Amino acid sequence: MRDTLSIQADVSLQKLNTFGIDAKARAFLAVRSVDDLRAVVADEALCAMPRLVLGGGSNLLLTRDFPGLVLHMCMTGKSVSDEDDAAIYVTAAAGENWHDFVRWTIGNGWGGLENLSLIPGTVGAAPVQNIGAYGAELREYFHSLQAFDFHTGDVRTFNREDCRFAYRDSVFRQAEPGRFAILSVTFALPRQWRPNLAWPELAATLPDATDPALTPKAVSDAIIAIRQRKLPDPAQIGNAGSFFKNPTVTAAVFEKLKAAWPTMPGYAQPDGNWRIAAGWLIEQCGWKGKNVGDAGVCETQALVLVNRGLASGAEIISLSQRIQEDVKARFGLWLEPEPVFV
Ligand code: FAD
Ligand code: EPU
Questions:
Q1: Would you say 40 and 29 are in contact if contact means Cβ atoms under 8 Å apart?
Q2: Which of 43, 73, 176, 311 suits 111 as a labelling partner, its CA being 20 to 30 A distant?
């Protein structure tokens, strides 16, 4: 174990969150090994502070200076941890960049994660909200993860059932958020790859599923092109991707809504419910491209709120509440935020 921790005081988080919100951390530690976390737990003063486990800051809204210890997960490393007849097991450390990891698996000829290309952030945060895009979710090829438990000081293994994955959700967002720091994640990538072209926009740009030209790399490249066309780049304008989850309703509720608004986009779910495109609801309420001060609604994707300059977290929240109220008044649906408010 390391004797002393390099704790920094009053560190700006502006470059460490993709919204570009200007907030400070009272104390900050770049975590490079599990021993750093053990040392935090062993230190009474550090252990007593409020704690934020930080990855790439791409699913966070900082609402104020953080009055505690930010643990920036910086562990790196990725490797094949096992193989069997069915799968290649790959493990990556929490601080690895998610997209670089996906491209590394594809570069090695292993399919499975390609639909999740270009999602910002780290490997360690990816299970927290069971990241999803273009008809795929992390849980499909997830095998297990290792997490440090701040309550016990132990490292615990979570399998898929333990994680209780759901749409943009997992045990790490439910009971006791902040109790665990995910250290590494293992995926079981199938030897028999089958492309997932369920998303119509994706299928439209790719060869037929039986064509040998259809490789994990071809799917990944197509996803990258779609995402670059539709979503604002946080390097150009601050944002955290979708600001709200798409609301889920029963088939009966969706039928009623559809009768009143025939063009409302909805997606049937395996459990019989329907998921409604929140971007459409927000656009119908006239918010697309609108600004309130420096807080704005993206002009190409109404589900994405943006920081057009010096917006504070409070200003983004205030805009989001006006949107929530308008959508509720018009459609009777309440939009739940997706990013974590800190
Ligand atoms: P952070 O923002 O740093 O943290 C998010 C949460 O996870 C916080 O509660 C934090 O405490 C916790 N956390 C972070 N690391 C750990 C860890 N190692 N252990 C325990 N808890 C941890 N998401 C999707 O699902 N699909 C998309 O298509 C998508 N597109 C996006 C597009 C853009 C342009 C942007 C900006 C975001 C998008 N997102 C999307 C959201 C975001 O990229 C993901 O949620 C991502 O997994 C967040 O990773 P992060 O490392 O930035 O997490
Ligand atoms: N739409 C509009 N106006 C808009 C935006 C969208 O009418 O301004 C309608 C369109 O009909 C479109 C439909 O909404 O066909 C769906 O839009 P899109 O394909 O862009 O997807 P989304 O539902 O807005 C979700 C995820 C994204 C993910 C994409 C692709 C959520 C909350 N968001 O967005 O995830 O990348 O699908 O799978 O589920 C994120 O979580 O941060 C994120 C970006």
A1: yes
A2: 73
Question: What tokens were used for 62?
Answer: 């900082």
> Domains plus CATH for the chain?
3-73 (3.30.43.10), 78-230 (3.30.465.10), 238-341 (3.90.78.10)
pTM above 0.85, yes or no: yes
pLDDT digits (tens, 9 = 90+) for 279-306: 999 999 999 999 999 999 999 999 999 9
The gap from C-alpha 32 to its chain's centroid, in whole angstroms, comes to 22
Q: Write the burial class of residue 211 (CB in 10 Å: 0-12 exposed, 13-18 middle, 19+ buried).
A: exposed
Ligand 1 centroid, distance to 140 Cα (angstroms): 18
Q: How far is ligand 1, taken at its centre, from the CA of residue 187, in Å?
A: 18
> CA-CA distance, 173 to 168, in Å (whole number)?
9
Query: Which one of 168, 184, 220, 320 is the catalytic residue?
Result: 168
Catalytic residue among 58, 184, 220, 242: 242
Whose C-alpha lies nearest to ligand 2, atom 7?
280
Q: What is the pLDDT of residues 219-275, one digit of tens each?
A: 999 999 999 999 999 999 999 999 999 999 999 999 999 999 999 999 999 999 999
Determine the distance separating the centroid of ligand 2 and the alpha carbon of 80, expressed in angstroms: 33
12 assigned to active site: no
